[in-house]
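We close this part of the discussion by returning to an individual protein. Part of our work consisted of pairing the sequence of a single chain with a tokenised description of its backbone. What the numbers capture is local backbone geometry rather than side-chain detail. The amino acid sequence and the backbone structure tokens for this protein are reproduced below.
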Amino acid sequence: MKVSKEQVAEHRTRIMVAAARLFRQRGFDHVTVADVMTEAGLTHGAFYGHFPSKEALIAEAVGHALPSVANSPDPRRPAADYADGYLSVRHRNNRATSCLFSSLGTEAARGSADLRHSMTQAIRYRIDYLAADVDGGTSHARRRAAIAAWASMVGAMVLARIVDDDEFSREILSETRASLPLR
């Protein structure tokens, strides 16, 4: 049975969304192509009609899920509000839809050039986004503060997920938020 161009595009999107969710939950190495296709509601054999390899899927799925001007639902949301949501227990607990940097950053550092390029572009986007709402007299000072804020937020989320003490985890999140120069 012939599939329309619209259906092909829809299937590809379903595959990327399912893959991004599973990668955040389990990591790249613990997700198979079969897992992704089952999650997307498609057959395993259909995968290679969309992607030449799992590595290609990783790069595209992560790129699709990363923040950018093109896919940001609300690019003018105040950075302070963004930080409040990011450094929350809800975000910490919801790895499947959480930030790709805090769930996959260390794995992505060992990823393909395409994956690292997508991640680099998204990091630039997030830093530029935060630089608009941080304290600082010059553009250089605002950029420095934005880099420090973003690094602190991602690092805090990683640490909050690592520790096995919920009170300590919450403290990491709240104290990091209190330290950020976001207005």
The two ends are 56 Å apart (CA to CA). The chain has a mean pLDDT of 90.
